[in-house]
Amino acid sequence: MPDDTMLSHIADTLEAGAGHNDLNMVQTVIREGKEIMLELVEAQFPFDRDHDGRLMLGREGAHRANRIFHAGGDASGRMLVEYLLQRIPRHVQIREFVTVIDLLVENGRCNGVVLRSKEGQIETLHADHVVLATGGCGSLYCHHSNHQIATGDGLMLAYRAGAHLTDLEFMQFHPTLLVKDDRSYGLVSEAVRGEGGVLIDEHGRRIMEGRHELKDLAPRDVVARVIHEEMQQGHAVYMDIQACGEFRSRFPSITRLCEEAGIELEKGRIPVAPGMHFLMGGIQVNEWGESGIHGLFAIGEAGCNGLHGANRLASNSLLEALVTGRRAAMRIRASEIGKLGSQADEVEAKVVRGARVAEAAVTGEAAVTGEVGMAKEVEAEIDDGNVQHSISIQVPQTSLAELQRRMTAAAAIERNQEQLQGMKQWLMEMPTQALKVQKITRKQLELANLWQLALLVTESALLREESRGAHYRSDCPNRDYHNWGSRQIVHSLTGTQIVRNERIVPSWNVFS
Are 384 and 394 within 8 A, CB to CB? Predict the structure, then answer.
């Protein structure tokens, strides 16, 4: 579009990220993302077009221009996955319905994975490189837009193997999930507001008036908090779609959700509420997706490379997935042909040794990783693929529903020290049962991962005594650039640290 530039997209990403973005990563993804999108257009990917064949570019929250490509109306992600699946070479084997239990790590190098097959057999798969593309952890909360299998498995696999996790306090809650009778049905895309939808209460009052200059298209953290406040005051919140032309054809997926929930679209209102949507943090990686463990990569939502900062800009996630996936593949390919070795040792130096430690978590904080981090005990003998693995997983003696209820109350859109301390105490005092991997069910393993991750998330939210992006502390409602500018909370098996990352540049410095 003539009124849009890469510089404008960069500025929007930095503003949404609340001064916590890695500027180099932002520039890289937006520059290379544009190249990939042009390649897809040239390859005739079925992006939405108007009656004259011109690309229909949409606008979403915190974007100041129409720059969003869509496919199938509101089914871009699904259509992209189907498109790429059709182009996988025939010799590539895809194994579904297996559970990865552990990463094989020896002398600082990841050499493969331990898994349990669909039939329940324990197997090992050896590989020179392992790429985690396991998404996030929406199942930590009662309402979320993720698939039910988003249980933080990849994050905890990497953590238990020795990789670092960072920025876990930054959980994005999408403002508009379709929620009826306390049941969430799915996402009401931000594109609806880009097409004229507005947020109203039960009396028809527009709730975003006077809250932000972009009103209904304000950044997600802003809109989610406003809706949360309205609901806390007893108001119902709706998406008013009366100004959206051709809603059913423009948003077929949302139309199906409404039909499932019994919503009459003719009335022009869809009941909405915020729900967990995206984790800005994750496995700490560099611009190539490399973790601090040789041979272990993390891409997409599973990895944290600094692109999103404290709050992701709408639709930057698919762009990130495309760019980081290609970059990891390039790195692996280059390593295989001997042109370029892995830079994991360089990452390790930057992330840990080279980072200037601003503070170290006090003695009590080390228990986060000391007690919970080693949630497995492993004794294994592996000989030519014949594995005899004895892995014990500490399974918390609670239900997923109870964990979700407590996390939603204490560590969701609005947080404070008292609630977070109570949540941390409940998690740390949780009785557990050690189960051998041969006996543990998939549900028990997922619950163990979520319990362990919940403690790290709670710890991060407690330590960051400020509000920034998607992390909002009602007892510390302002940004604190002096104490928290360019600082990250990093979790590892050796403890929790607050480190300064010089690659993080506050957005207000970038264009001055």
Answer: no
